[in-house]
Amino acid sequence: TQISPSISCQWEAVGPQTEAVPTNYTLFVKKGASKQGPTNSIQVDLELFPHFDSLDIWVVAQNDLGKEESEHLIKYAQHFVKTNPPSDVEVISEAAFPTSLVVNWSHPIIKVYVDLIYQIRFCQLRSHIWTYVPLEDTSRYIESFRLQNLQPYTDYVTQVRCKYSVKDYGYWSDWSKNATKRTPEDKPKSKPDLWKITTEGGINKRQIEFICKDPELSNGIIRRFNIKIRIKKDKSKNGSWESIQVNRSVPDFNRIQEEITRLKKIDLADEQSVYVIVTAINSVGASPWRLLIFDPKRNEPPVEKMEVRSHKGQLWLEWKPPNRTVSEYVVEWVSGGEIDWQRENGNTNGTVIKGDIKPFVCYNVSVYPIYSGRIGKPVHQQAYVEQGAPLQGPTVNLSGDPGRNSAVLVWEEIPLTARRGFITNYTIHWKNATGIFKTVPANTTSYTLTSLSHNTKYDIWINVSTVAGSYKGPNHSFTTLKYAPGEIEAIVVGASLGFLFIVLMTMLLCFYKKDVIKENFWPQIPNPGESTIGNWSPDYPLKAEAPRENCLSGISVLNVDMCDAKCVFDEDKASLPLKKDKYLSEEHSSGIGGSSCMSSPRQSVSDSDEGGDMADTTASTIQYSSVVAASSGYKGQNPSSLPQQSIFSRSESTQPLLDCEENQDTLVQEASRQCFQRQPCFTPNAGNESTTNGDGFNPLEMEQQEVLDFCPLEEDTEQTAPTECQSDEWISAPVSSYMPQLGGYRPQ
After folding, report:
1. 689-706 as b/e, with b when 16 or more CB fall inside 10 Å?
2. Which range, of 150-159, 348-357, 491-500, 530-539, averages the lowest pLDDT?
3. How confident is the model over 54-68, as pLDDT tens digits?
4. Rounded to 5°, angle at Cα 357 from 351 and 361
5. pLDDT of 224-277, one tens digit each?
6. Is the pLDDT of residue 106 over 90?
7. What percent of the chain clears pLDDT 70, i.e. is strictly above it?
8. CA–CA separation, 575 vs 703, rounded Å?
9. Predicted local confidence at residue 533, as pLDDT
10. Where is this region: Disordered (predicted)?
11. pLDDT, tens only, 652-697
12. 424: Cβ–Cβ under 8 A, 6 or more apart, which residues?
């Protein structure tokens, strides 16, 4: 209520100060009052404030080296007065005046002591930018003031201070406490901020959702939106307007923050366009309407060369305007499921995003040119206001099974929330005994490792990197195969095909060379019975005459043991000189391939002394002869005038007989042996009598003619044969004799 008699003075020390030489300060005030002390501030008690009187105030500094006096302050006593701030500051809102507030306060001291002037400042709530009321409007002794040109339905904070009214006198008091008040509502003064969200709704369809923010100058709480929609299907049909009213649920009318209201979802075909008109309504009235046209048929040009960069914690955009007049631009930024946008004037070519942009978050920034409400084609770009190291690394896996020397790695990109920046590259690490790494571009999500060792275990992991750092992903292990997939199958199939090829070629070769193979492995043994040797001899006709019956009836049988054979023939050698000569002569005169048709397959007893071992030394060459018929006459040394009727057939084969054939001939030979009982070619008699049968047939002459046809020397000497077996049927049939020779044909 009155001015205090105490004066507080402060000054600044000049020059160096030391504790060894302390300085004392003396404050002098007019009327001789003074007070000393070592500090640079002193409070002087004047007991009574000298109203409307001048005071002379100065300070003297003194120490052991000297003293110094400050300047003098000579002013009225009110000049040194600093009053308390105004009290009881109050702000009043009037519904009739939505753009003004009335501020009331109380004087801190009565005018008798100090004539005061005031200063007022205000700002919107949560803002630190103050607006000062000009001093010429408040430089008088007042207790209230009306603030004008305020925003309707806006909270304002107001402060007031005062000082001595004389210009350049006195000190301003401190600001009063905050007085906050909201201005009344008014009709919205700006258009609602209408926008859209486009999503694909299927083949040749899309879904449009219209969203809206409150008008920038909503001047109150927006309680509902009135919407008019018209869908234009084609040029001939414009469609009708559909009116929709969207009410807003406003649980708290004291909120100030902006909110996005979802208005309407519609489905459009590719050829359809939509027109939307929206107005915002509060408790006082409706806002101006805003038009938005979505027409995919019209390809409105986009902006050019858009660039987004980060600067001092903000995202700055620049672009080149299209070659058309643009009414405004819409700058949209999307992160995850959150979307926000702002509008810029059509004359600008750059801006800064004013929304709440967070660091380490990727934003998809788009710029849409608006042509009189019609949305143009956008341009997109991703951006970070600040980048950091990733929070996690990619998990690597194998695509399929590992191979023998290779493996295909695949991984997925880490989520956007974990990237915290643009991925610059991936570094693939794999090791068995030594570590190897490979750096791949950021757009790669697979890689094939090559030149791996077979049947080896590998550990792999991937590091993901940004400009601010990197992060290591989890490890994964795998073992390469010992054999490549299909390698064993290829070997088996190749070997099988090769074997099959060889088999087929062998079969084809056997098929085309079957005659040669048959000749080498299964030789064709000629049938002696079918031999045409008779055709070779010009001395004999093709058809042999039938032998006379009982031509062999006069043959005597002599049983000779193996041990006695040599003795018997030795005794008879002297008595048969002519016979041997005939034999040799007959052989030499055969003329059939250098051999006689009557040559024996064995040597006769008279030609060899080897006895029973003759069969063991038989040569590998085997010749076969077939006696078709015996000669009807005696063949002597001289050519006979009688025709020779015998036909001799000989096979030139040198192969051994088969068992079955050999057995068959053996049976025939055995039969012949049983009939002839190993008879020698002559029968010695005691009186050397010539024996003849009743027909005058001389057996000796027959013996000489046939020579040794029935005189092989066998080991079995025990058999005796009856003479009754010599039947006509047996003689008439040709007898085959297959016997080995030691030396082949006898020379002629």
Report:
1. eeeeeeeebebbebbbbb
2. 530-539
3. 888 899 999 888 888
4. 120
5. 999 999 988 766 567 788 899 998 875 444 444 457 899 999 888 877 889 999
6. yes
7. 66
8. 14
9. 63
10. 587-616
11. 444 444 444 444 444 444 444 443 444 443 344 434 444 444 444 4
12. 442, 465, 466, 467
Cβ atoms of residues 385 and 313 within 8 Å = yes
What are the chain's domains?
6-80 (2.60.40.10), 87-182 (2.60.40.10), 193-294 (2.60.40.10), 304-352+365-374 (2.60.40.10), 396-479 (2.60.40.10), 528-738 (no CATH)
**Residue 649 contacts residue 528 (beta carbons within 8 Å):** yes
Q: Is the pTM of this model over 0.90?
A: no
Burial (CB count within 10 angstroms: exposed 0-12, middle 13-18, buried 19+), residue 560: middle
Residues 466/420, Cβ–Cβ less than 8 Å:
yes
SS (H, E, C) 577-608: HHHHHHHHHHHHCCCECCECCCCCCCCCCCCC
The Cα–Cα gap between 703 and 552 comes to 9
Run of H or E including 328: strand 328-335
Torsion of CA 650, 653, 654, 659, to 10 degrees: -100
Torsion angle, alpha carbons of 103, 108, 112, 114, to 10: -90
Residue range 580-592, pLDDT digits in tens: 343 443 444 334 4
Please classify residue 407 by burial: count the beta carbons closer than 10 Å to its beta carbon, then call 0-12 exposed, 13-18 middle and 19+ buried: buried
The SS3 of residue 291 is strand
- Residue 315's pLDDT band, with cuts at 50, 70 and 90, is very high
**Cβ neighbours of 140 (radius 10 Å):** 12
Mean pLDDT (the chain) is 75
**Residue with token string 């004037």:** 345
The end-to-end CA distance of the chain, in Å, is 183
Q: What pLDDT does residue 435 have?
A: 77
If you average pLDDT over residues 18-25, what whole number do you get?
A: 86
- Residue 187 CA: distances (Å) to CA of 191, 217, 282, 515: 11, 9, 7, 119
The amino acid present at 488, given as its one-letter code, is: I
SS3 127: coil
HSE, side-chain direction, 13 A CA sphere, residue 603: 19
Dist CA 600 CA 310 (whole Å): 126
On whether the CB atoms of residues 156 and 182 are closer than 8 A, the answer is: yes
* Model pLDDT, residue 536: 60
**95 and 171 in contact (C-beta within 8 Å)?**
no
Question: Are 92 and 183 a contacting pair, CB within 8 Å?
Answer: no
